[in-house]
Protein 1
Amino acid sequence: MDSIAFLVFRRMRTPLLALILAHAVAVLGLVLMPGQDSAGNPASMSFFHALYVVSYTATTIGFGEIPEAFTEAQRLWLVFVIYATVVVWFYSLGTLIALLQDKTFQRAMTERRFARRVQRLRTPFYLVCGYGETGGVLVRALTERDQQVVAVDIKEERIQLLRLENLRLYVPGLAADVRRPTHLVEAGLRHPLCAGVAALTNVNETNLKVAIATKLMHPEIKVICRADSHDIEANMASFGTDHIYDPFDIFALYLATAIQAPCLVLLEEWLTGLGGERLKDPIYPPAKGLWILCGYGRFGKAVYRHLVEQGVEVLVVEAEPQRTGTPATAWVQGRGTEAETLEQAKVARAVALLAGTDDDANNLSIIMTARQLNPDLFVVARENHLDNHELFEAVGAQIVMHPSSIVAHRIRVLLATPLLTEFEQYARYQEDTWACELVSRIAALVDEQVPEVWEVRVDEDDALAVWDAALRGNPTTLGNLLQDPRDRDARLPAIALMLARGGDRELLPAGSRRLQRGDRLLFCGNAGARSRMRWTLLNHHALCYVQTGGSAPAGIAWRWLGGRRH
Amino acid sequence: MNPEKVVFGFFIVLAFTLNFGFFVGELDNPAHHNVWELFAVVVVNLIATVLKFGDRTQMGAVLLATSLVAMLQLIAAVLVWAIAVHVTEVGLTPVVTASIVSLAGGAMMANVVSVVLLVVETVMLRR
């Protein structure tokens, strides 16, 4: 129930009782005191006048002796009234002000305001637990796409930062411990419009607890977790957490794919880039030669495993091998920041270096030292804190890996365009030449800018015209959608990447494919193509034009006439 | 014995008895209804209302509601009295007295509910 009202009532009970008693006694006494009217006849004060006099006296307003001049007896009583009631008033006001400044009270007020705002949300929203670097990047990316978000973080100052952030939508934020389920409920976990929960704190156990709470309290919604220990990941997967992201595994896989299939990596980067970014150039990590891996922690181990699987020669440099364990192949003890260690690790004949310790200063130092010894090195750097981004740009590493951004990037793609995540998974099974061909097709469509990627669902909201046509047994082909609704002989600058029908997925579907109700399509192309395609999707006339080149009779009368003519 | 319960019960019952005392008598005869008693009823009802603040139970909420109803009725009665005697100076005519007393009678019904609830709660507790 409403805890604030009860908090106020509880605290104000004694002051209010004191106030009532003091007033009652004062009024009673004033009525009892012998008084006299202007003519000198004895006349007691009535209750009404007594209450009036006590009210203005108690609140220190002091109008004087009303309605008649007081007798000495009344004045005597009033001396008592003044001291008793004024003191009680101050006591009551003091208690009320102290209550308003009370930390518990203010906390209750903030929580209540937050809960009410969340309750009032009328669009589907995601609950982001942990507004650190990952959460911050994700919240920004989602709000850029007009996706409502609610954020909770344990640190007050992070939530203050959220308020200062210039976001497109208002994001309700609460500083609270998400390990307590009440706070999750306040943040809208049970809200019918809660579409998913992203547990992104930097503590694995907290993320695990959030995942459990979500699966128990709102089992239908998606749970996305960040984790960087395999133990916790297995635990999360055991009760059906929908998506678990381990930044180190993701990056290691990315690096391995980049060595084997550079086009595929480039394709993924282009399709998942943020709108307005410039297209990235391809990177070619060396597949032959010696890789030096500095740091054999969680990150180092993940990369090591993938590189060794690729058959790359790897040499590990680790400062505390007794803590992290040692690889099966060659390793050198040391931090890698000094030339001696790197020389031991044969830096002169190495082709690539990976600075992967959990200390940014060390990583930068490793890269600078190694570059002096061997300027041709291909450098991969791990950036632990976003604050150091300028330094990592200046040091000139070919790949900079930032764990928080990687997770945020993945989750953004998953939440904004779920089909794209599926597309990436299917694309992994294709040859690199397939990816190269697609990359060159995309490059021809867009002008040095990241292409726009969008989903279309053949339903009444997204594609009314196509839905209607399919209902009337006149199915639209995929090629129709890719025709320009202004000139049907021209093609829109867009590519259909995938067609999802039930459980089936078809990559790069042919233009002759007939669309059915409930189909989902993934397109990429330039931004203009998307808005023109909406015309065809929603407008009967535009659809009719791209299908037949003519325009269908509109209006009941014309349609009837048209029917008679044929 | 819980002293808090004693005080609580005392004020609820006192509010009811005083209210009843003011209410009995001929409806429109000012001599049967004393203004002193009305004053006492208002003060005791105020105290009873404040005592009911901050009780989170369902019973507490209903008790508070009955008290608020009683206060509303009594304040209306007091206003009628103050306006009749001091503002318009009609005095306590039978019409005015009847409306004051009937308002107080309404408050009494709310107090009856209060007392009944108190008894019900006590019986249910059996401690």
Protein 2
Amino acid sequence: MVSFWSVTASLATGLITTGKLFFLTLVFALPLGLIICFGSMSRFPPLRGLVKTAVWIVRGSPLMLQILIVYYGPGLLLGLPLLPRFTAALVTFVINYACYFSEIYRGGIQSIPRGQYEAGQVLGMRRSQIFFRVTLLQLVKRIVPPMGNEMITLVKDTALVRVISVYEIIWMGESFIRKGMMWPLFYTAVFYLAVNGLLTLLLGWFEKKLSYFK
Amino acid sequence: MKKLLALVLALTMGLTLAACGGKSDSDVKYVKDKGTLVVGMTDFAPMDYRDGNGEWIGFDADMAKAFAESLGVTAEFIEITWDSKAMELETKAIDVVWNGMTLTDEVKSLMGVSEPYCKNAQVVVLSADLAGQYMSADAIGSLTFAVENGSAGMKALDGLNIPYTAVDTQAKALMEVAAGSTDACVIDLLMAGAMIGPGTSYPQLATAAELESEEYGVGFRKDSDLVKAFNDFWKSAYDEGTVLSTAQTYGIAQNIIEK
């Protein structure tokens, strides 16, 4: 029983790293995604093209490869000092997830009927006013389910950062294999399920809170 | 916008210059200026493992601390992903790979390596009741194998033309055998000594044929002057008896190479 608790404690330290990565990624990627979204809908073709190409590269290549490039790339290609491991992981996740989020935002914005923009214009509102006073509230409501999907994927994707030796839950679980214990690796699933269970409840509650147009 | 662009350009140039400035020819000087020797390793008893207080100990860890002390710096241990060790060194994420590393041609081509300090062998591990039938390399062709990807054991099997499943650590190779998904694995003798047989987590497993003997060395950046600093340190530590007494503490005195 002693070993059960010490394994749990060790996995919990991994959970803290996983949790930090998850929260900080959301904090930075949610607003950055909106900025990227505006870029990809820009009326200025070169900017639109640039942003769409960047989104294609980020969404089209494996996240694990991106983590390796962000961490080792500066040192290998330019001889620059490296970012700390956790920071490199965070930067990669923020960029990667912001690109996915941007497409969800775009879907949400474009699902708002055209007539509402026109009505806003007729009333003499500026584009920014239309966005913040008319579109945004409806947008948030519509994107909660796909955002929830991404957030749950994010919790599990954090496991990839062990390729640059960031000690998250799976790394901690795997390190017990060297000591001849196999079950801690599989036990990590309990932590992911608990976090995602909590997240699902939270998202459900949030969705209910948003039923303000009913 | 123009100001921002100018700022970004200035920053990039500054960083590039800083990087050039930081590139001194002497790795010894680089480590001394920094005050730490960053040791890349994995949890690998009896070479590197944690004691009850979470402190890294083991034959390699203790000697690394002594080497750092001889340079007047402190040793800092970082658990790395073993497959990335050359990249970790080259990018200066770590200063040395010191973890019972077999001196293969691949390792020698990627790093500046020390003189070998420890002997080891690659050994077949399988269920104890079958071990008796597989004591020679000729007998093992009919078994299915798991082996650590890129390890010396994998090269030994390649040499014998025996197919295998590559897994990412030696410990996972043992787990495959214990779980019954493969008949046998090839791991090194030091690890086998610590992890299988009566009184361990795998009492049902035993060692059989020895495939290949090998030597352990310490890896530095290519052309680094730390290699010479290490060889000198090791020779004097051997003469003083520190090497053997440390090896005795961890039960590997018979593996140490005479200097």
